[in-house]
Design goal:
With 447 residues, this protein is an alpha+beta fold. Among the domains are: 33-80 and 98-137 and 163-268, no CATH class; 356-446, SH3 type barrels. The chain contains 13 helices and 20 strands. The strands form four sheets. Strands 1, 2, 5, 6, 7, 8, 9, 10, 11, 12 and 13 form an eleven-stranded antiparallel sheet that branches. A five-stranded antiparallel sheet has the order 19-18-17-16-20. A two-stranded antiparallel ribbon has the order 3-4. Strand 3 (97-100) and strand 4 (103-106) form a beta hairpin. The mean pLDDT is 87.
């Protein structure tokens, strides 16, 4: 299966939020784990109303020939990591943390990457009868001896996983010349009645679950920017906790990622980013600088928390200067700032040929010529806005004289004593009043 073009962004989705800065188990934000792409046991979900037990992806393909689909389901299986120290007579006793020489190890839940592949699915077969695919994940129990620098046993790390019983329901239906695919992921793992412990439930859940789809003999249709003839079929797609987007080389339509995180078509990791920081939307420079500010004790705890946290800290401590400088900002998608045709037409409508521009136009109020720069007192009469109550008797500066399509005159003003008045004028954020609602100041009359 040809998923290479999508693997890096898929890895970022898989480990999104896995461990967050400051990358320590004791940090508040790392105490409630596993936030994205959760598919929990159905009985737990129904009983607690918290994490969902299913997710659904629907997308369109434009077939030509006899299309087939390659499917890859990826998720994390949570395993517990407990720490035990050596006791008498070769036994062990549980501890929260174990310090061996300069190495610290603590208890923590880890995520083990799982992949389930289904190649060569004939779309014609799905149109006829659909398909159910089992996605089991087995239990496991392993221990790892921990020795000091002299080779003396000091304890052990115990890792345990629990079985997960899940399945994918695959179906297809015709939508005009298109075919709509439906992929529903369900977790039917048995769960004890009355057990509402989320940490235990996560160990029987699919975490960061997402799908990679590869079409042969067909092209995927963008759900974000569909062609006109696919708009109705796209509107009929029901995606629940899953957002399918095109991935790979921009313009190609053979790969799609159904992500638990909202993305645009053709998402990509910034080329300046050397490695993932367990947050695909991070600003690498800021996080790297923050890691550098951690104390040695904090870094030691981060290294003890998880191997991915250890990698982040070690990599940041040794980041080359030239790599760090590449993180200091980049410009993309710069285009000439030409006015849009609609804007040019609108401006022409408000400023017809031969009429003065608003900043050059003027109006006579009570025998006084008022134009851009004139000071006036606001006397609201129409009360078109609640703000008019606060504008009464305030001094304002005229920024332009506008005429609407009916020929009525409106003066754009900013408050003279507003510290942000110049900023409002620069942005064109004005208050508008008719000539009958403004009174020229004597200074303006004398000027």
């Amino acid at each position: 299966m040809s998923f290479e073009a999508a693997e890096r962004i898929a890895d970022a989705v898989l480990y999104e939020g896995y461990v967050l800065y400051p990358y320590r188990a004791s940090a508040q934000k790392n105490r409630v784990r596993w936030q994205f792409g959760i598919v929990a046991p159905r009985d737990f979900s129904d009983a607690t109303g918290s994490d969902p037990w299913w997710a659904q992806t629907e997308c369109l393909i434009d077939p030509h020939g006899r299309p087939t689909l390659d499917l890859r389901l990826r998720f994390l299986q949570v395993q517990s990591r407990s720490v035990e120290r050596s006791a008498e007579h070769g036994s062990f006793e549980p501890v929260h943390r174990l310090l061996v020489d300069d190495r610290e190890i603590i208890g923590w839940d880890e995520g083990v990457a799982r992949t389930h592949e289904i190649p060569g699915i004939a779309i014609e077969d799905l149109l006829e009868r659909g398909r159910r695919v089992s996605v089991p994940s087995s239990a496991g129990l392993e221990s790892e001896a921990v020795c000091d620098a002299r080779g003396a046993p000091r304890g052990r790390i115990v890792r345990e996983r629990w079985p997960i019983d899940a399945h994918l329901l695959l179906a297809a239906e015709r939508q005009g010349r298109f075919v709509k695919l439906r992929l529903r992921l369900e977790n039917v793992t048995a769960w004890p009645v009355g057990d509402a412990d989320r940490d235990r439930a996560m160990r029987r859940s699919l975490v960061s679950a997402h799908l990679l789809l590869h079409a042969r003999g067909a092209a995927f249709v963008s759900l974000l920017d569909p062609p006109d003839d696919a708009a109705v079929a796209v509107a009929a797609c029901a995606n629940v906790r899953s957002w399918p987007v095109l991935v790979g080389t921009a313009g190609a339509r053979d790969l799609m990622l159904a992500s638990p995180i909202i993305l645009y078509d053709y998402p990509a990791i910034a080329p300046e980013s050397p490695r993932d920081l367990c947050d695909g939307t991070e600003i690498d420079e800021i996080l790297a600088l923050r890691v550098m500010t951690l104390t040695e004790d904090e870094k030691r705890e981060a290294r003890a928390t998880d191997e991915r946290a250890r990698d982040i800290v070690d990599r940041t401590d040794s980041i080359p200067r030239e790599v760090f400088e590449r993180l200091h900002g980049a410009f993309r998608h710069l285009q000439p700032a030409d006015p849009a045709p609609a804007l040019a037409e609108w401006e022409a409508l408000l400023n017809p040929a031969g009429a003065p521009a608003p900043q050059d136009d003027a109006v006579v109020i009570a025998g006084v010529r008022v134009a851009k720069g004139s000071l006036v007192v606001v006397r609201p009469t129409r009360r078109a806005d609640a703000m008019d109550m606060f504008m009464k008797d305030r001094v304002a500066r005229v920024e332009g004289v506008y005429r609407d399509l009916d020929g009525a005159t409106h003066l754009a003003v900013v408050l003279a004593d507003d510290p942000s008045g110049d900023l409002h004028a620069w942005y064109g954020r004005y208050l508008y009043y008719g000539p009958e609602e403004l009174e020229p100041l004597k200074e303006a009359a004398n000027g």
